[in-house]
Design brief:
The chain is α/β, with parallel strands linked by helices and 253 residues long. It has ten helices and eight strands. It is globular.
Amino acid sequence: MDAPVFTGVGVALVTLFDDDGEIDLDATAALAGELAAAGMRSIVIAGSTGEAATLDSAERVALVKVVRDTVGDDLPIVVGTGAPSARQAARLTAEVVAGGADAVLALSPPGSTDPTAYYSEVVAAAAGAVPVLGYHFPAMSAPGIDVELLPGLADIGLAGLKDSSGDPSRLVRTLTTFDGALYVGSPWLLSAAGPLGATGAILAVANVEPALSIAAFGGDADAQRALAPAAARATGPAGVKGALGRSLRTRVG
């Protein structure tokens, strides 16, 4: 297995918008900079929490540029490129790779029980330039990626997987059958995932509680328990943004 894109905890960065509904590039980049300073090991742009469905390829590339200018070259930037069809996902992948992404995260297509052909096109679009991570999130795009398919996906060049299912039995099965990098997306499994050998985590709640997220992934049971209130609130982009707003008011007030 090649070296993973990153190890430890990365943040599934929210995309911030202004009052006119346009992306607030400066505010989003500033948040990324704060999270990098707090110890995040990767910034993930245009994932589910980043409202990928609302962003075109030019906006994703613009986000890569401003975040890169803020966090520097040493922190990997991963960009979501999942789409309903392989054609769309491949085009998005090629465009963000050309725009400077260090890796891509492609949500599996809806309704597909075997996304092998889909991921083949995405890997080919990356042209070996950057790693491609699969993304299993059946609540967002059912049915997701069956564990039994993962070895074959590794054979076609899939470098790793983000698993947001929150299923502990699947976590263990994946760790025993898949040689690629495994990033958990559920905040509820962190204190088990790290000690069991998961490569890292990509978390929405890390926008709000980066320190607790890092500690929980390191196996700290107290941090896992302390993270629970934020994890319950910070679900979906609206929940994360609401939690960020409350956190900011608390700091300012």
